């Protein structure tokens, strides 16, 4: 039950300072976040796409406290898109964005986030690719879905993320599957109360499969965000049952986790997209990766001991 503890620590300034100061931290962070700048990330993009993989790029950072920071986040994505354009990768390299980075939690945050994310979606469309809106904690989702609906009026390829552990998600999935959205399904990586989310891993897995079936049988484009071998196998079974071709859904996994599986799925002809984060404000993203899987935490602790 370390996951909730780690997620709480992800919001602690004291823990941020302790983890950031640990000599081994950078070595371990590099496993999940392969660069801090666009210049550092471009060779990673070249390597992954050269191996038949696709990407969704995330500029890390969530704790936005001023409109100026939100504008800077927007500009960081615009810089990335500007550098991706000449590579002519199209949808092989898309973007993932957290609306909290665009000012969603600030006063007037819904309008501010929409105003900041729209130019990013427009710029992505101009180079032949798209944007997926990441899901955050449950209090932000009504705003996220409203922004998603607004953007899709002009950019119907705009995607969104839904989280299997939330009770509301089965209803959200039915709506999104019916209107042809691009939908990434994940288990969920935020600390949510029992009033709104499943707490038992087995119940979360069962909800994931129910929602996955809804997406596969619907009219949208499912994006399966999971490293779980059993869920990957179930995905393939449900896709066959729904008559979906390999290019009518895709797998998505995190950079630094199960890299051999990325290559295996791509070699078998599946669309395999790697969620690749970069940037300097890595702490929250890194802590959620530790919380998601005990093996990630063990890897970090072993590294601390061996380098201590």
UniProtKB/TrEMBL annotation:
One family name in Pfam for this protein: Pro_dh
Cofactors required: FAD
Cofactor binding notes: Binds 1 FAD per subunit.
Enzyme class: oxidoreductase
Reactions accelerated catalytically: L-proline + a quinone = (S)-1-pyrroline-5-carboxylate + a quinol + H(+)
Record keywords: FAD, Flavoprotein, Nucleotide-binding, Oxidoreductase, Proline metabolism
PANTHER family found in the cross-reference section: PROLINE DEHYDROGENASE 1, MITOCHONDRIAL, PROLINE OXIDASE
The protein, known as: proline dehydrogenase
Source organism (scientific name): Streptomyces prasinopilosus
Phylogenetic classification of the source organism: Bacteria, Bacillati, Actinomycetota, Actinomycetes, Kitasatosporales
């Amino acid at each position: 039950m370390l996951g909730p503890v780690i997620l709480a620590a992800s919001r602690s300034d004291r823990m941020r300072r302790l983890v950031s100061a640990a000599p081994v931290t950078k070595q371990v962070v590099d496993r999940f976040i392969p660069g801090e700048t666009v210049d550092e990330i471009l060779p990673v993009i070249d390597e992954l796409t050269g191996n038949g993989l696709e990407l969704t790029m995330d500029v890390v950072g969530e704790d936005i406290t001023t409109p100026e920071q939100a504008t800077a986040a927007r500009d960081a994505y615009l810089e990335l898109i500007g550098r991706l354009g000449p590579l002519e990768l199209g949808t092989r390299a898309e973007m993932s964005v957290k609306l909290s980075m665009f000012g969603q939690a600030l006063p007037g945050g819904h309008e501010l986030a929409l105003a900041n994310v729209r130019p990013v979606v427009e710029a992505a469309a101009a180079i032949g690719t798209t944007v997926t809106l990441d899901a955050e904690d449950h209090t932000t989702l009504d705003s996220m879905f409203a922004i998603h609906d607004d953007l899709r009026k002009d950019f119907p390829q705009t995607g969104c993320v839904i989280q299997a552990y939330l009770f509301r998600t089965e209803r959200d999935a039915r709506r999104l599957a019916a209107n042809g959205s691009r939908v990434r399904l994940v288990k969920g990586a935020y600390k949510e109360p029992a009033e709104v989310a499943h707490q038992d891993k087995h119940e979360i897995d069962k909800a994931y499969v129910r929602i996955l079936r809804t997406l596969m049988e619907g009219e949208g484009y499912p994006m399966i965000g999971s490293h779980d071998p059993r869920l990957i196998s179930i995905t393939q079974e449900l896709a066959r049952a729904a008559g979906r071709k390999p290019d009518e859904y895709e797998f998505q996994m995190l950079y630094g986790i199960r890299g051999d599986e990325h290559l295996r799925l791509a070699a078998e002809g599946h669309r395999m997209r790697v969620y690749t984060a970069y940037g300097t404000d890595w702490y929250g993203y890194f802590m959620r990766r530790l919380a998601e899987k005990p093996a990630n935490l063990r890897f970090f602790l072993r590294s601390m001991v061996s380098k201590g």
